[in-house]
Every structure is written in C-alpha cells, then in structure tokens.
C-alpha cells in the first residue's frame, strides 16, 4: 500500500504546488485501493471517500476510472523514468548495466509487484489498461536498452549483430524473469540492495559471456 499522508489542506485559491500535491495524494489513495480491491472492485466513489474528497473534485481531474488508473500507472513509473544515466555517452555498456539494476530494483518494490498482480487478475477484461501499462513501463525500458545496445555496438563494445530487439528482450528476461516469478508467488529472494546488486552482476557476466565479450573488455 502507498504511504499516504494526511489530505493536503486547502485555504483559498490553491497554488500550482498545492494542486500538484493534491494530485499526488489522490493518485496514491487510488493506487492503494486498486491494489487492495482490483480495478473492477474499485469505484470512483470509494476513492473519493478514502481521499476525503468529493466525486466532483475527482472527476474534475480524471474524466473516468480508466483515466485515473492510467494516471496511477504513469505516476508509479515517473520517478523511474524521469532521468537517464549521464554515463551512457562515455560508456554505453556501463550505462546498460545501470539500467538493468534500476529495473530490478523497481520490480522488487512491494507496490509494483502488487500492481502487477492486479493487472494480471483484471487485465484480460480491460486490455486498454494493459496496453497503457506496457506503453508506460515496458516500452520506455525496451527502447532505452536497444538504444544503449546500439551505442555499445557503434563503440565496438559488443560484436556486430546484437544491437537489436531480440538481444534486448533476452537481457530483460535474464535480469527480471525469475525475480518477477518469485515475487508473484509471494517470495522475496532478493530482499536487500546488496543481494540485488550481486544478482545483477552475476547475470551481467553471463550475458556478456553469451555475447562473446571478454571480461574486463
């Protein structure tokens, strides 16, 4: 569940900062209810009551429950995708390694895996929501990984023929497939930062070996 603070106080005309704070608050409340009750089991009325807001306030910002859910997904991923590593121009492989670590840390968060479970449970009935989640989460990561693979290929860091979508999907699967499976089953095999870092490093060495990249190259 999200860490929801007390509802932002409003006195007089809200400032842009007040409005942004209220938006964040509403998205956190909505996200917690979607996780707890699923998309189908959550109504706009429930969200408004839990947030201590009127339905009019909620609908003024989000025209429908679908629009609100999409905003929740965007909010969840914003902090992850808001910056790019500055090392990419100097060392694309090092940047790619950092992206893999960022991705694993992200998917191991409790609210992320809870959202994942909820989308699995309800997604087949609401394919547009899954499409949005993929556009907000998977596609940006996939594009970033492909871009770094191409930069690594251009820099001679990896052999020709591996700067493509297939390699990007194989790398993502290696880094996250087992971890996601375990988390969905209620297990937490990589509970701390040190264990996640070690897992990424070991998987990274395996990936480079598969590409034919010598250690330390």
List the helices and strands and how they pair.
Layout: H1 16-37, H2 44-51, H3 55-61, H4 65-81, H5 92-107, H6 110-122, H7 127-154, H8 165-184, H9 193-211
Helix pairs in contact: 1-2, 1-4, 1-6, 2-3, 4-7, 5-7, 5-8, 5-9, 7-8
Briefly say what this structure is.
This protein has 217 residues and is mainly alpha-helical. It is built from nine helices and no strands. Helix 1 (16-37) crosses helix 2, helix 1 crosses helix 6 and helix 5 packs antiparallel against helix 7.
Order of helices and strands: HHHHHHHHH
Query: What is the tally of beta strands?
Result: 0
What overall form do the CA principal axes indicate? Answer: elongated
Question: How much strand?
Answer: under 5%
- List low-confidence stretches: 1-6
Radius of gyration: 20 Å
Average pLDDT, rounded to a whole number, is 87
Largest sheet, strands/sense/barrel: none
Q: Given the helix and strand composition, which structural class is it? A: mainly alpha
Helix percent band: 55-70%
Question: Features of this protein?
Answer:
217 residues, 9 helices, mainly alpha, 69% helix, elongated
Can you give a write-up of this model?
The chain has 217 residues and is mainly α. Helix content is 69%, strand content 0%. It is built from nine helices and no strands. The protein has helices at residues 16-37, 44-51, 55-61, 65-81, 92-107, 110-122, 127-154, 165-184, 193-211. The chain is elongated, with a radius of gyration of 20 Å. The N and C termini lie far apart (43 Å).
């Amino acid at each position: 569940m999200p860490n929801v603070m007390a509802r932002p106080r409003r006195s007089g005309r809200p400032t842009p900062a007040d409005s942004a704070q209220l938006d964040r608050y509403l998205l956190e409340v909505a996200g917690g209810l979607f996780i707890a009750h699923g998309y189908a089991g959550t109504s706009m009325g429930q969200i408004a009551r839990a947030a201590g807001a009127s339905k009019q306030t909620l609908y003024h910002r989000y025209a429908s429950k679908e629009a609100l859910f999409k905003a929740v997904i965007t909010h969840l991923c914003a902090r992850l995708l808001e910056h790019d590593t500055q090392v990419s121009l100097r060392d694309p492989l090092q940047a790619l390694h950092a992206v893999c670590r960022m991705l694993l840390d992200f998917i191991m968060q409790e609210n992320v895996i809870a959202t994942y479970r909820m989308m699995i449970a309800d997604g087949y009935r609401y394919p547009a929501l899954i499409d949005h989640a993929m556009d907000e989460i998977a596609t940006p990561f996939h594009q970033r990984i492909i871009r770094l693979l191409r930069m690594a290929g251009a820099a001679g860091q990896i052999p020709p023929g591996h700067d493509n979508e297939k390699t990007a999907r194989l790398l993502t699967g290696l880094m996250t497939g087992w971890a996601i499976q375990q988390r969905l089953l209620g297990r937490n095999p990589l509970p701390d930062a040190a264990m996640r870092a070690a897992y990424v490093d070991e998987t990274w060495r395996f990936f480079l070996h598969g590409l034919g990249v010598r250690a330390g190259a």
